[in-house]
Write a structure and sequence with these properties.
Keywords: Ribonucleoprotein, Ribosomal protein. The protein is α+β, with helices and mostly antiparallel strands and 172 residues long. Helices cover 55% and strands 16% of the residues. Helix 1 crosses helix 3 and helix 2 runs antiparallel to helix 4. The termini are far apart.
């Protein structure tokens, strides 16, 4: 490969890292062509961009960026595929669903501005909530006290209405 081609690829990888907020480094060494194609289809359906890269080119692309990605450098061994996405936990869920005998295996991830190194971090990555899930939780927490007050007022009103109705129907 010519030096010009390498520099173009490095720039493309760096631009993709900037474009997406989260990325996962996945070991696809033991996957055959059929399994890789199935993984690509599943990634496309989930809104994940899958890119198989040379480790040295990815390393140089990460070095060219302003942020320090040095914790990920030790994970760049073997055959590496990179999953780019805008929602932090989507690739983790996909890997967990697809993983048979550790294939594809998680090497490392950069999600929510944190580094997750090793396959044992997969459950932690699955548990990360997306922005919309966090907003929904906050709205539910804010609505809970108001709902309690309204239900208490409604039940109290029904009780008071029942007492007045009973007193009104009582013969004198």
């Amino acid at each position: 490969m010519r030096k010009e081609d390498k520099s173009t690829i490095i720039e493309q990888i760096a631009a993709t890292v900037k474009e997406y907020g989260h990325f996962y480094l996945v070991d696809v060494t033991a996957m055959d062509a059929t399994a890789t194609s199935a993984l690509r289809r599943d990634c496309f359906k989930s809104g994940i961009k899958l890119m198989v890269v040379k480790n040295t080119l990815l390393h140089k692309a990460l070095e060219s960026l302003e942020e320090d990605f040095s914790p990920l450098y030790d994970s760049l061994k073997g055959t590496t595929a990179v999953m780019f996405c805008n929602t932090a936990n989507v690739p983790a869920k996909l890997i967990k669903d697809k993983a048979k005998d550790g294939i594809p295996g998680l090497k490392a991830a950069y999600a929510e501005e944190s580094f997750y190194i090793g396959a044992d971090q997969l459950d932690a990555l699955v548990a990360i909530k997306s922005k919309n899930e966090v907003i929904a939780d906050i709205v539910a927490l804010l609505q809970s006290p108001a709902k309690n007050v309204i239900s208490a007022l409604q039940s109290g009103g029904n009780t008071l209405h029942g007492v007045l109705k009973t007193l009104g129907e009582r013969p004198e």
